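Model it.
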Amino acid sequence: MMKQMNKRQMVYFENDDVLHYSILDEPEAGSVELSPSITAELNDAGELIGIEILNASRFVRDTVLDSVQAQVLHLAKVSVQ
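Modeled.
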């Protein structure tokens, strides 16, 4: 049975540099650390209900820079061929 998604919400806590993305409006029953700064929050059925990112400003900056760098490298390879 697939649950209907509630209104998704993203909240940034500037003082703590934490980004929280809520997928389902349900109580958290557990969590799984995906990396040292990313935690998946789960409901009692083990379904993903949210994601928490610590050091969010650095994470977002690094992710964007990696993506841009990959695109530039891809374009460079295409133009050389």
